[in-house]
Amino acid sequence: MQTPNKDIKRRGSIKNIVKQREFLLVLIIIAFIIILGSINSAFLQTSNFISMTRGFTIDGFVLIGMTFLLISGVFDISVGSNMALSAYLFTMMCVAGVPLVPAMLLTLVLGAVIGLINSLIINKINVNAFIATLAMQTILRGVVLAISQGKPARYTGDAFVALMKGSVFGLPTMFLIFIVVIILVDLVLRRIRFFRQLYFIGGNAVSAELTGISVKRTKTIFFVIIAMLAAFAGMLSASRLQGCVPNAYAGLEMKLIVACVIGGCALSGGMGTMIGSALGLIFLYILDNGLIMLKVNIYWFEGVLGVFLIVVVLINTLSAYAGDRRLKRQQALKHSQ
Question: Model pTM?
Answer without folding.
Answer: 0.87
